[in-house]
Every structure is written in structure tokens, then in C-alpha cells.
Amino acid sequence: MLNFIFSFSDMSMTGENVDVTLSSSTESPKEHEKNEETPTSRTETKKRKGKKPVEASPTKGGKRKKTSATWDHFKEIVGDKDRAKCIYCAAKISCSTANGTNAMKRHTNRCKKAPFNLDKTQTILDFESKTKCNTDGTIETISVPKLWRFDQEQIRQALAKMVIMYELPFSFVEREGFRMFCKVAIPDFVPPSRGTITKDCYALFIEKRRTLKNFFSNLSSRVCLTTDTWTSAQNLSYMCLTAHFIDDAWKLHKKIINFFPIVGHSGELIARAVEKCLQEWDLKKILTVTVDNASSNDLAIKYLKQILNLWDGSMLNGEFLHMRCAAHILNLVVKDGLKDVDASVTRVRAAVKYVRSSPERLQKFQSCVKEENIDSKALVCLDVETRWNSTYSMLKIALVFKKAFRNLKTKYLPYTKKLRKVGGAPDDEDWDKVSSFLPFLEIFYETTLSFSGSRYVTGNTFVEQIYDIGYTINRYVDDLQSSDGLRSMARQMKLKFDKYWANVNNLNVLMFITLVLDPRHKLRYVEWIVRRSYDPSNSYVLCQRIKDVLTSLFDFYAFMQPSSTQKTPCSANPTSSGQDGKGGIRKLKGTNLRKDYVTKIESADTFETMTELDRYLGDKCASESDDFDILVWWSM
């Protein structure tokens, strides 16, 4: 648009055109006076019976003003009354009174030099603002030239993406405000109807699905799946299936490959739904399937393992296909620990719910906050009872306003009266309990956030964080200086934690393999974690399993992708025959076994006897750094 305005301004400000336009539209004072005469004085006629009135001719010497807007784009040619000159392209067009201004109108509509007839396909030079980091560390905003061309289809496609990204209703494109914006910003763009934008969104989905399917067909790595099932407030069950994979450029991807309603949460239904989705995407090379810890999922994994083995898509017969959701396990661990302080949490939740229930109550609470001089921009928030991390956030913020809640309890009788129905308002003992176990819960909260990340690799930190939590729980259990309530909470958590992590035979060893493949730690660090977390007998069993699985995995991939380099066998210099040049019997030299052995050892590369895995484990560990990226390291 700016280019259009600038080009129009430059064109209209050229000296010749401006002068001519002014001269053609400006009248002399006499002509102005004549034109201002009343119609009666100019068209006075004598009416005769049976004849039409005869109009009087214009005043002698006067010039009739041209009223057609077409003359704004033309100028008269001196000495040629039948033609006019276009002020944009200088073309001479007929303007005789017999034909009128139709020819001039047609030319104006198709004149390519007219600014309002700018070719939509014409490329326009535009400038885009970008930030540039200088060598001294300063940030500078620069304008980068780029070419832009109006394209109705591209704008419609971008509009469809916007509707999808921000979950806008399809009727958004028919709203008056949006159409007014388009008229000002892109006058040439014709906004689509709600039906058209619906088709555009679906077409975009089909195109993206086709592109992703082609990508999967050429993907050399395996795919990890995560499933999530839940029941909505309308009692409808849904399932989301997400694929996580690393492409050939060592970039991590997360793609939702299906989102659909299911009849129930049974293992067979879930397994068949996953199978159908994998068939649609032609996905067969599956590494793991992560599910929550519902018993029905065990049956689903068993069925999927059989299917993948039939497809020849599993690894090591699907032994490590089942991966339990660590975030769900932590949720169960914390919920068991919170049972001992459930009464205090319930009272704090009721207090927050009361404050948030109406504007009047919130205003009363804010007045208490001002009286207590609490300087915080945060606002108390209500939790979702099934999500303990939201409970942690609720308690953390409520603890900041502890004095305000005390003030409200003292001065506002309706508050205490209302909360008597749920056990009363939180007292000092409740706040003390919350403040004592909140730092303990913070460890679980931060770990859950780390597990929930999908845009960065979490496998190499999984074992560290899980066993660090187990170590922390044991420390609170054995700490005699901790309060009885906190130790009781830790004991409840330990029971649930040990249910999933104490039995070394039920662990998926792949989570330890990912830590071994972190070049900063490797096998020795994993063995140290195992020995610190288990007794000597279980430690030996688990460490041996990790080594065996690591070797099996290497052999599995080495068989699929054999090395291009082969060992060169050592042999004596060959001779064509046992005869000398004269045809007689040549005397053979004596064989020296030790000499041949030394020659073989000296000529052979000692690394040829070691596998790539042996060399990796034997090399020095990578140095620690805050910006370390494991994918970048492996891509080099």
C-alpha cells in the first residue's frame, strides 16, 4: 500500500500534469459569474401551445463546464475538439459530442499507467524490519528490502492458518470489523465467506497431512508415541496420539497425528484405535509407546506389541515398547503424600474459592491486602483438584496473602460463616503446614515441568531427576529434625514411589540407555546412580541388564546399517609359482611365525578390534555447559 501511495504521489506531482489539470479545471472570474447565474435567467423560454419549450443558448462568449468525472483524467487538446489527451499515458482518445465520454471511460479503466489500475501481479519493492546483533553486542533494527506481489490465494491460505492457530470461528471472516480492516489494508483482497474459509482450512489440513506422511515414509529414525485419554464434562471420551521423532538433520519434532473420540477406556479399544492410526500414516518403525498407569493400558501394549512384530516394525521383539508416563507417576506419588494434609489444603482451597466467587468479595479481600501492605501483583487462583501442580500454584500464591486471609477472617463475618460448612477458614496451623511442605513439593513441581517439555530432549535427564526425587524422599523420611507431618508425608510418597521404581526387573532399561548416550556422563555415571539407589544385589542385576541391552541395541543397529569400512586381511606376498625364472625349482625361505605375527600387529589398526560403542564409552566425557545440546553433539 505504501508503494502504491508513493507512486501515486510522484505521478500526480509532475509539473506538466499538475499545470494542465489546474488549467483545465480553473475558470476565469467572468466565466464563474456566468456559470453562477440562475437557471431561470439562462434557460428562459417562451412557451407556445403545442410546441416543446426551446432552451436558450449559453451566454455569448461563455464555456460550458464539463460535469463528467472522466475529465479528471484527461486534458483538452488545443485545436482538436474531437479528442482528449490522457494525463497518465498521453494517449489521444475521442471525446466528440456525438460519442460522449464512453471511449474515455473505457480507456481510464484499462490504462496501465493509472495508479488505481496497478497490475495485481506486479512485483513491488517493500521493506521488512529485522533485528541485527552487532559485534559489540548491541541490537540494531534494520530495514531489509524484499519483493512483494499481491496473491489472492496466498492471502487466503495465510488467513486459514490464522483461523486455525487462534481457534477463531469460521464466521470471523464475515464480521464487519474484519472486512473493514481488509478494505483498508488490502483493498484488492476479496474476503472469503465462512463456507469458503472452512474449505480452505480443510484443504490446508489435507496438504499438511500429505506432506507429513511423505516425511514419515522417508524417515530413517524410529518414532516414539505418547497417548492421552480423558473424559470431558459432557461425559465424552477422547484420545490424543502424538508422535515424537528426530529427523535426519538431528532436529526434534512433535506432531499430533490423531485426535478423536473413543467409546471407552478399555485396552482393546485403545489398541485398535492406535493400530488404525498407524495404518493411516503408514508408521511401522515404533520405538516406544508412552501411556499412563491405568491397568487397561497393559492390555493395549500387549496387543500393539503383537501387531508391530507382525509388521516387522518393533525393536528387539518389542521388549522395551511399553514406557510408563513419569509425569503421571509423580502425580500419583504427590497425591498420596497430600492425603495427610488434605484437611488443610481443603480449607485453603475453600478460602480462595470464596474470594474468587464474586467481585464484591474480591474487592473486600483486596482491601485487606492493602491494609496488610502486601506488595504483590499476583492474584489468588483456584486449582484443578485432579492436577496437583495446579494445587501447588494455588498454595504458593495463597501463602503470600496469608495475612490478608487472617485479616478477612477477623473483620468479615460472612467469610467465616460461609466457610464453616467446609470445616472453617484456614487457621495458623493450616498455614504452618502449607509453608512447611511447600518447599518439598517444589521439587516435584519443577521436575513435572521438565518432564512435560516437548520441544527439547528430556530422555537424557529422566533418570537423574527420578532418582534424585527418590533420594530426597528417603532423606526426609530419615530426617529426625523434620516435623512429624512432613516425615509422614514422605513415608506415604515413598510407598508409592517404590511401587514403580523399587523392582529392577519391572524397569524399562531404555531410560538408562538414554543417559548412557549423554556424552557428559556415559556408563560410569549411570552405574553410580544405580549403586546409590539400590542394594548391592539389585544394583549388580540392573547394571548387568543395562550393559546387555546396550550391546544388543548396538548390534541391532549395526546389522541394519553395516559399516562401509572393512578390515583388510593380512597375507604373505603372493608368488605366481614355485619356480624360478629359469624354470628350475626355486628354494623357499624358512617361515618365521613370530615375524609374521609382529608384522600383522604393526600393520593392523588397534581400533579395528574395537566397536564404535567401545570407542564411545572409552573416550573422555564431554565437558559440562549450560548451553549444551545433546542433538548438536551427536550431529557432529
Automatic annotation (TrEMBL):
InterPro entries: hAT-like_transposase_RNase-H, RNaseH-like_sf, Znf_BED, ZnF_BED_domain_contain, Znf_C2H2_sf. Residues 65-118 form the BED-type domain. The keyword Transcription applies. PROSITE patterns: ZF_BED (PS50808). Pfam families: hAT-like_RNase-H, zf-BED. PANTHER family: ZINC FINGER BED DOMAIN-CONTAINING PROTEIN 4 (PTHR46481), ZINC FINGER BED DOMAIN-CONTAINING PROTEIN RICESLEEPER 2-LIKE (PTHR46481:SF7). This is DAYSLEEPER. It comes from Hibiscus trionum (Flower of an hour).
